[in-house]
Write a structure and sequence with these properties.
MetI-like fold, 2 domains, elongated, mainly alpha, 65% helix, three-stranded antiparallel beta sheet
Length: 431
């Protein structure tokens, strides 16, 4: 017995040599370095993400606020026709009431400079209020209207008072008028709900994302209705029913290749087939959704096949053993168990489609649309193309709105990925 103990101690002592300890230390140091490399990569990625989001917030946070001026407006029945409110002279009503705040301002040039303070869309805002309630005609109302973009930027501090007059869009006289309005308590900066409820506009202070959000919704709806059932059916057939031969191998290779094809190629395909051959309406969410469905299909097929493979073979064997047909095995057992992964892949594919710009630009979903689309065949834009349009606009107000639109798009993408994670964790089965 003592000989065995001595043999064990001798064998153990063989691992305690200096060379063995040095090799052990090197392995531990290599493991530590590998962990540090991974941790460093994660930290760098988080820092880059934080830098991106921070820069967007710094640039775009002002777009979530909009400066307004509030003043009394008399809705003169001589200028506003109750029977024809859309044919009335609202511009005169709006400007005369605003000029009344500055009785010392005379002369056409000074009045024109004074009128530049309020948005050019003020007459249309008043028209919509009167059209919604014609009983207002003949009354004096407190009318709140957005400031024009240069003066909105001045209130927010983007246009500095100390900048030489020749280097800014706001003159010293206009600053004096703004100071008077501020002293009278007529300037306010509420949350800019118009960013979400207004459609696009030439005037930054009135531009919103309503049309783009609606267009993206319709396009994703069409994309989902086409790609989801088609992708699942194709994946089920290829994985469970298709014979293994050169033809199916060719199909699988092409599906994998299509998943890596640049999105602009799908845009060219949609332009040639849907618009050129079938003659479908340009700029319509129907065409956009069909083009995005072509781009999303490979992702859904690949993720669906991976989810089907993850279902244990014992499930299939047990169902077949009790007399179920192949169809019953798939529809009643395998597909429901694979559905969490299928839904996750579908949502991720739709999130990718939501952020695509190139295919939508090629089919014309970058038109200037001043109202939200009412259906899938109406002209529309989408969030990515709206961002592209605003980024190309020369007005300074669109700079902050571009960053704000990117934040809204990122918010939708984060929400869709969060839904995918929730569905996967809720319905996932562990074997």
């Amino acid at each position: 017995m003592s000989e065995n103990v001595m043999t064990t101690q001798a064998a153990t002592s063989g691992f305690q040599t200096d060379a063995a300890l040095a090799r052990l230390r090197r392995r531990k140091m290599a493991d530590t370095r590998l962990k540090m490399y991974g941790l460093g990569a994660i930290i760098v990625a988080l820092l880059l993400l934080a830098t991106l989001v921070t820069s967007l917030v710094i640039t775009g946070h002002s777009a979530f606020l909009q400066s307004h001026v509030t003043y009394p407006v008399y809705l003169d029945p001589d200028k506003i026709d109750a029977d024809d409110p859309y044919g009335s002279n609202y511009r005169s009503v709006v400007r005369d009431a605003f000029f009344a705040l500055f009785s010392d301002v005379e002369g056409m040039r000074e009045q024109r400079n004074l009128a530049d303070i309020i948005s050019n869309g003020a007459p249309y805002i008043l028209r919509d209020e009167v059209s919604a309630d014609s009983a207002l005609i003949g009354q004096t109302i407190e009318f709140s209207v957005p400031l024009a973009d240069p003066f909105d930027q001045f209130v927010k501090g983007s246009v500095k008072r100390g900048t030489p007059e020749e280097d800014r869009l706001v003159t010293d006289q206009q600053i004096a008028w703004m100071d008077k309005l501020e002293a009278d308590g007529r300037i306010s900066t509420p949350f800019n709900w118009g960013l979400f409820v207004n459609a696009d506009s030439r005037f930054p202070e009135l531009a919103g994302l309503s049309g783009a959000i609606t267009g993206s919704f319709f396009a994703l709806l069409v994309c989902f209705l086409i790609s989801f059932p088609t992708g699942i059916a194709a994946a089920v057939y290829l994985e469970e029913f298709a014979p293994k031969n050169k033809f199916t191998d060719l199909i699988e290779v092409n599906i994998n290749n299509l998943a890596a094809v640049p999105s602009v190629v799908f845009g060219l395909l949609g332009l040639a087939v849907f618009l050129g051959f079938f003659g479908l309406p340009r700029s319509a969410p129907l065409v956009g959704g069909m083009t995005l469905a072509l781009m999303t299909l490979p992702t859904i097929i690949i993720t669906t096949r991976a989810s089907l493979k993850a279902v244990p073979p014992s499930i299939r064997e047990a169902a077949l053993g009790i007399g179920a047909s192949k169809h019953q095995v798939m529809m009643h057992h395998v597909v429901p168990l694979a559905m969490p992964g299928i839904l996750t892949g579908t949502i991720i594919g739709l999130a990718q489609a939501l952020g695509e710009t190139a295919p939508l630009l090629l089919i014309g979903m970058n038109a200037f649309i001043t109202s939200a689309p009412g259906g899938i065949t109406d002209p529309a834009t989408a969030l990515p193309t709206q961002i592209f349009i605003w980024a190309d606009s020369p007005e300074r107000g669109f700079v902050s709105r571009t960053s704000a639109a990117i934040l809204v798009l990122l918010g939708f993408l984060v929400l869709m990925n969060a839904v995918a994670i929730y569905l996967r964790r809720k319905f996932e089965r562990r074997w």
